[in-house]
Design brief:
Elements lengths: L3 E3 L7 E5 L4 E8 L4 H18 L7 E10 L1 H19 L4 E6 L5 H13 L4 E5 L6
C-alpha cells in the first residue's frame, strides 16, 4: 500500500497516512465544498489496508489537529473514526490523539465526546495544536 501525502489547501487538511509506520495524520482546516469527495478515497484506502494488513500488533496512531471543520467534514471524520474504532474492537491497539487549541472549548468538548462515541479507541486529548 502506497502512503498518502497531501498538502493542506485553504479548504482541506494536510493528510499524511504512513501505512508502514501505522501513523495517520490530519491537520489544518476541513471545509471542502464536497467533503465526501475529499474523504472517500482516504476511507477506501484505509479500509483496503485494514483488510490486507498482516501486522496487527503494532499500534495504529491517528493524529487529528483541525483548527476548523464544518458539519459535512464532521460526518466524514466520524466515518474515519468508526474504521479505527472497529480495528480497536478487533483487538488491534489503536489510539486517537486529538489536538485542540486550549482556548477552543468546542473542540475540547468534541474530543471528550469522541471518548464516549468511540469507546474502543484510546483517545488522548492534547491542548496544543502545534504539537501534532
Amino acid at each position: 500500500m502506497d502512503n498518502i501525502s497531501l498538502p493542506a489547501t485553504a479548504f482541506t487538511p494536510e493528510v499524511d497516512f504512513d501505512f508502514t509506520a501505522h501513523r495517520f495524520v490530519l491537520k489544518g482546516e476541513s471545509y471542502p465544498e464536497n467533503a465526501a469527495a475529499f474523504y472517500r478515497p482516504l476511507l477506501t484506502a484505509i479500509e483496503d489496508w485494514f483488510k490486507n494488513s498482516q501486522n496487527r500488533k503494532q499500534t495504529l496512531s491517528l493524529f487529528v489537529a483541525l483548527v476548523y471543520f464544518n458539519s459535512s467534514s464532521t460526518k466524514m471524520l466520524f466515518s474515519l473514526l468508526q474504521l479505527f474504532n472497529s480495528a480497536a474492537e478487533a483487538d488491534w491497539p489503536t489510539e486517537l490523539h486529538w489536538y485542540y487549541d486550549a482556548e477552543d472549548d468546542i473542540s475540547e468538548e468534541f474530543g471528550q465526546e469522541l471518548k464516549h462515541d468511540f469507546p474502543a479507541l484510546n483517545v488522548q486529548l492534547h491542548q496544543d495544536l502545534n504539537a501534532c
